[in-house]
TrEMBL record:
One of its GO terms (molecular function) is RNA polymerase II C-terminal domain phosphoserine binding. The lineage of its organism: Eukaryota, Metazoa, Chordata, Craniata, Vertebrata. Residues 20-94 form the RRM domain. Keywords: RNA-binding. This is SR-related CTD-associated factor 4b. The keyword DNA-binding does not apply. It comes from Nothobranchius korthausae. The keyword Nucleotide-binding does not apply. One of its GO terms (cellular component) is nucleus. One of its GO terms (biological process) is negative regulation of termination of RNA polymerase II transcription, poly(A)-coupled. The gene is SCAF4B.
Length: 190
């Protein structure tokens, strides 16, 4: 199921910051942003395109990880062209990853695997620029998983299923609270 959602393999005690940014290279220097957009828009919503004509490449941030994954898989298999010129495509490191964490980047998976001990909780929000946090890889001690489940990411909704355990726990607590209120109201009536 993770693979279908475009998510990489899990690593123990490691935060996965999954890129939604793609690099498209070997572009003709006259390539326009609209040319790149027409190549990728069929795969999903595009957040931004950063053209770098002197280098013949562009960085495209997709709104959803799954869309970026699908585009990469399809476009890397064929000989796709922009302006009659074959292009290359690969994962790109998302902007939210700071220099200290670049050594954890895995270009094949399109993910930065950051050991929990190297993560500062107040940096989590910045990691999402051009990527998403894999909620299954958040350290439970950070006590923030449910905040991210209820909050939109910089590039659209966080792409994880809600934490069923948290939802069930909240439901049980709510039922206990209602039972307690019911008992108190019965005591007050008598």
């Amino acid at each position: 199921e993770r693979r279908q959602r475009g998510l990489p393999i899990l690593k123990s005690q490691t935060l996965s910051v999954c890129s939604t940014t793609l690099w498209v290279g070997q572009l003709d220097k006259k390539t326009q942003q609209s040319d790149v957009m027409s190549l990728l828009e069929e795969f999903g919503q595009i957040d931004s395109i950063n053209m770098i004509p002197p280098r013949g490449c562009a960085y495209i941030v997709m709104v959803h990880r799954q869309d970026a994954y699908t585009a990469l898989k399809k476009l890397s298999r064929g000989s796709y062209k922009v302006n009659q010129k074959p292009v290359k495509i690969a994962w790109a490191l998302n902007k939210g990853i700071k220099p200290a964490h670049k050594k954890f980047w895995d270009v094949e998976q399109g993910v930065t695997y950051i050991p929990w001990g190297k993560v500062k909780v107040d940096e989590l929000e910045t990691f999402k620029e051009g990527g998403i946090l894999d909620l299954e890889t958040l350290n439970p001690e950070w006590n923030i998983a449910r905040d991210y489940n209820n909050q939109a990411a910089v590039n659209g909704p966080t792409e994880m299923v809600p934490d069923v355990t948290v939802a069930a726990h909240v439901q049980v607590m709510l039922m206990q609270s209602l039972n307690t209120l019911f008992l108190i109201s019965n005591v007050l009536v008598y």
